[in-house]
Amino acid sequence: MTDPNALLFSVAGHGLPSGRATAPAIDGTGPLDPGTWDALLALVVEQRVTGHLVAAIDDGALRADDEQYDDAYAAHHRGLARDLVLERLLVTTCARFDAAGIVHRALKGAALAHTVYADPARRSYGDVDVLVRGDHYDRAVDLLTATPGAHARYREPRPGFTRRYGKGVCVVDGGHEIDVHRSFVAGPFGIALRTDDLFADGQPVRLGGREVVALGPLDQFLHACYHVALGGPTPGLVAMRDVAEMLFVARVDIATAIDRAAGWQARAVVQRAVTCTWDAFGLPPDHAAIAWARAYQPTRFERDAMSAYTGTGRSYGTQALAGVRALPGTRDRARYVGALLFPNRQYARERDGYVARWRRIVSTQRGAEQVR
Amino acid sequence: VGTPGARLTLLTHAGAHVRRTALAVLVLPDDTAVDEPLALHGTAVPIWDLFSTPRAVEEVAAVMAERFPGTPRDEIENAVDDLARRLLDAGALVAVPGAA
């Protein structure tokens, strides 16, 4: 039985240039035995890469019997049906923001599917993501949660906290999730990111009969890098494919992207994203992006900040604590720490464990600083 | 649509979210509360494509008749008419204002 995980990576990277010395896991392979096929299909559905699976089958890279072919297309069509509903929700959400004068940009999902991929059916997604300018953030959340039945998944430690320092909030509406972002991530890299820069550029995207504005191409690439490098303990396959797609197909200029990331103290984010993407898909080693990433030496800030996202003690609490270092002034730092240490009662009740852990982390950190 | 006169009405795509695969075209109109896209298969796909510019059912049926010369013309016309009516009802097609 071929390893379904190895097949999954080959499927997700199907169509990208290969730099592997050995043949990829799919190269005219198949039909797979039923056990391997079922395991692969389950992984493909979970990772939302059914578009690449059917492309691999149609291109002959993965041979499928009739039943497997039907299974693959049925799963793909189910995924696309969800994508279309979410795309429509993105359009109506952006229209509501437009009507209220809330400055925003469509992120990830449908925006990437239509601007980066030659065929939007290749790029599936699971929610709606919209970036809102910081000074409009509170109004945006109020607007969405005013819909009957809609609610924000988490409260803020104190009013105005997310508008100043946070990543954003997830609003649940009718069984769908709308992620309202102020920044790309929580913690130090999110705070160091100059979010106003993201609204200087934008690109119109026609979705259905209406138009939304997505991030500019360079910022789309950098956002994908943040998602790969900092989005979770294991980089997401779809986000890594986004990075590869933008470098090899949309041909984002890596040197310009690195310059922009430098202004946000985030070159290490690009470095990690590029390295993870190359390792996952076995991309050619002679590309400028990987040559730079292998050689780059992160700054001290970047090293410390990165450990909050990727270290063994990774948690929202450690990221929040590390965020202190990204704040420029003592007043901001005091306000930030005060909000996290002494949040309002509802927040503390909802995240009791988190607040207690955070207080322990802060006290440990203070102790460590005194020892130094 | 549905009556000989109505078959001359020009129809075209309404605002809709669309995905295409090798087997189907999925269409979710903008202005519906329905969460289940229409799935168009087989000859419904070229019929849908022909309505990307404003056309009457008769005109679409004529093009389809050229592509399928062995199929009786009235059978094709009824099939196009039936699909057009369902797409209109779902909000995926609209009548072009002022055209008939």
Write a structural description.
The complex is a heterodimer of chains A (372) and B (100). With 372 residues, chain A is of the alpha+beta class. Chain A is 56% helix and 9% strand. Chain A contains 18 helices and seven strands. Chain A has helices at 4-12, 34-47, 50-58, 66-99, 109-115, 137-145, 161-165, 188-192, 217-230, 237-248, 254-263, 267-281, 288-295, 300-310, 316-323, 330-341, 345-350, 352-371; strands at 104-107, 128-132, 151-152, 168-173, 176-181, 203-207, 210-214. In chain A, the strands form two sheets. A five-stranded mixed β-sheet of chain A has the order 1-2-5-4-3. A two-stranded antiparallel sheet of chain A has the order 6-7. In chain A, α3 crosses α4 (66-99), α9 packs across α12 and α10 crosses α12 (267-281). The N and C termini of chain A lie far apart (55 Å). Residues 366-372 of chain A have low confidence and may be disordered. The N and C termini of chain B lie close together (11 Å). In chain B, 36% of the residues lie in helices and 21% in strands. In chain B, α2 (57-67) packs across α3 (73-90). With 100 residues, chain B is of the alpha+beta class. In chain B, the strands form two sheets. Chain B has a three-stranded antiparallel β-sheet with strand order 2-3-4. In chain B, strands 1-5 form a two-stranded antiparallel sheet. Chain B is globular and about 35 Å long.
Would you summarize the structure shown here?
With 372 residues, chain A is of the alpha+beta class. Chain A contains 18 helices and 7 strands. Chain A has a 5-stranded mixed β-sheet with strand order 1-2-5-4-3. A two-stranded antiparallel ribbon of chain A has the order 6-7.
